[in-house]
């Protein structure tokens, strides 16, 4: 009997002991347990990935909504600014027109006042000239006759 035979017999006995102690079942059970654990981790990873994709989609949707809302707010602000510009322009034009009309009215009033003042001065000068002319050409008797005639004329007009 050779040493290889004894080594072979020892190996068979060792494998028999291992089978008796159920080492292969323990190894397969450990491997199955590890496989189940890996399978569970893969399922959890799938679920987490799906949740992450849903969150990403939700955040992208919210971002698009926010961008749309921002664009809406910006366009509303631009429209409001345009309305305010037009309103300010209209008010400025109205103010300028009103101020121009007031200035023209003041100028017209000043012209009227100047014309009236010139007329009053002309009347005063004409009265002074007429008084001097009449005073130099009319004596007391003619003046008394003119006064009486004017007084009579006035009485007839008043009645």
UniProtKB/TrEMBL annotation:
Q: Which residues lie in coiled coils?
A: 31-94
The keyword Chaperone appears for this protein = no
Q: Report whether Kinase shows up as a keyword of the record.
A: no
Q: Which InterPro entries match?
A: ATP_synth_b/b'su_bac/chlpt, ATP_synth_F0_bsu_bac, ATP_synthase_B_chain
What does the function comment of this entry state?
Answer: F(1)F(0) ATP synthase produces ATP from ADP in the presence of a proton or sodium gradient. F-type ATPases consist of two structural domains, F(1) containing the extramembraneous catalytic core and F(0) containing the membrane proton channel, linked together by a central stalk and a peripheral stalk. During catalysis, ATP synthesis in the catalytic domain of F(1) is coupled via a rotary mechanism of the central stalk subunits to proton translocation.
Localization in the cell: Cell inner membrane; Cell membrane
Q: How does it sit in the membrane?
A: Single-pass membrane protein
Protein family (similarity comment): Belongs to the ATPase B chain family.
Per UniProt, subunit arrangement is: F-type ATPases have 2 components, F(1) - the catalytic core - and F(0) - the membrane proton channel. F(1) has five subunits: alpha(3), beta(3), gamma(1), delta(1), epsilon(1). F(0) has three main subunits: a(1), b(2) and c(10-14). The alpha and beta chains form an alternating ring which encloses part of the gamma chain. F(1) is attached to F(0) by a central stalk formed by the gamma and epsilon chains, while a peripheral stalk is formed by the delta and b chains.
- Organism field: Hoeflea ulvae
Q: What is its main location?
A: membrane
What Pfam families does the database record attribute to this sequence?
ATP-synt_B (PF00430)
Its keywords, alphabetically, are: ATP synthesis, Cell membrane, CF(0), Coiled coil, Hydrogen ion transport, Ion transport, Membrane, Transmembrane, Transmembrane helix, Transport
- Designated name of the protein: ATP synthase subunit b
- Domain of life, per UniProt, equals Bacteria
């Amino acid at each position: 009997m050779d040493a290889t035979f004894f080594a072979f017999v020892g190996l068979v006995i060792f494998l028999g002991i291992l089978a008796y102690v159920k080492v292969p079942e323990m190894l397969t059970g450990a491997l199955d347990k590890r496989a189940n654990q890996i399978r569970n981790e893969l399922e959890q990873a799938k679920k987490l990935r799906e949740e992450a994709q849903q969150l990403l989609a939700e955040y992208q949707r919210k971002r698009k909504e926010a961008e749309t809302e921002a664009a809406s707010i910006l366009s509303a602000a631009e429209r409001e600014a345009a309305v305010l510009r037009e309103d300010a322009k209209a008010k400025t034009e109205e103010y300028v027109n009103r101020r121009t009309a007031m200035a023209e009215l003041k100028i017209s009033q000043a012209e009227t006042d100047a014309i009236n003042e010139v007329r009053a001065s002309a009347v005063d000068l004409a009265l002074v000239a007429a008084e001097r002319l009449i005073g130099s050409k009319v004596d007391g008797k003619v003046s008394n006759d003119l006064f009486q005639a004017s007084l009579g004329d006035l009485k007839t007009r008043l009645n």
